[in-house]
Amino acid sequence: STPFASNHATSYIVGGDHFTTPAIPPLSSQTSSSAASATLTEKLRANGLFAMAKFLRQSGLDTVLNETGPYTLFVPTDKAFRALLVQLGGPDRAELKFKENPRLLSGLLLHHVIPGAFKAASLQDEMTGVSLAGTQLRVNTYTTQDQEWNDVKVVTINGARILGEKSDIMIPYGVAHTIDRVMFPLPVGDVLQTLMSDRENRFSKFIRLLQDTGVAQSLQGTKSYTVFAPTDSAFTDGELERLLIEPSVARALALKHITPGTLYSAGMLYYQLRDSMSSPNQIQLSKEAGRVKVNNAHVISRNIPATNGVIHAIDSLL
Questions:
Q1: 86 and 132 assigned to the same domain
Q2: How confident is the model at residue 11 (pLDDT cuts 50, 70, 90)?
Q3: Which residues are in coiled coils (predicted)?
């Protein structure tokens, strides 16, 4: 049996946040008999979500999710899965990785499932929960503008945008929401741990700046932060050592790269100012043709998830 199988109201306590959601009623009480008889993969395919249906079937998780609940499934579009396969070295190499290590595929898919059936309207800013893969998922809501300058509410899960026109899809024992990208990579820890675990070790100088100024300790708590992290190449030769000679200046610089709250790129406007942790300094964000700038720095790697926020890598100091 799975720990989330229940036909009663179920509460989940994660990191101090407490969420309660009613269980999805048994299939026999759902309104449509055809919907009740449809399997999970059939429902996904009927909504044009062929890739998720394929991988759930390939992993065997479709059988589990057909029989237990309640749960919420976040389903990347087929286009999003194609982008992931390219990121993994192409479809052939990705398929080989999945076959050699089935847990890689099942872990990735379970990262997109959370206990409890949450309708889109119930998702609130900074709501967090633990997925069936044991990883953290964080909801954020933003107000952006469409092409006609109308205010539009954007809801994200670990930075992936929930597509309103394909949300609240009723599935066996749960509800599904379509998202615009695969939630990958999976969060590995808090902001500091995530910086330290970067596979290319791009942030060693910034990490030293954070540690030597005492800022690192602040990034290990439960408050959420957005960190614009300069890569090592953003520092000129000897620049870090010169900065650390004056601790107050170095600390102010480190704090200037951090802003309170969780800001994924989906919530960024074409122009906005945000307070940094180095009061009264603000940072200027601009977004054009999908490219993001912070002051004069370019974001070169965006939306790196952490359990207490998000990291965007930048190519120069602020």
A1: yes
A2: very low
A3: none
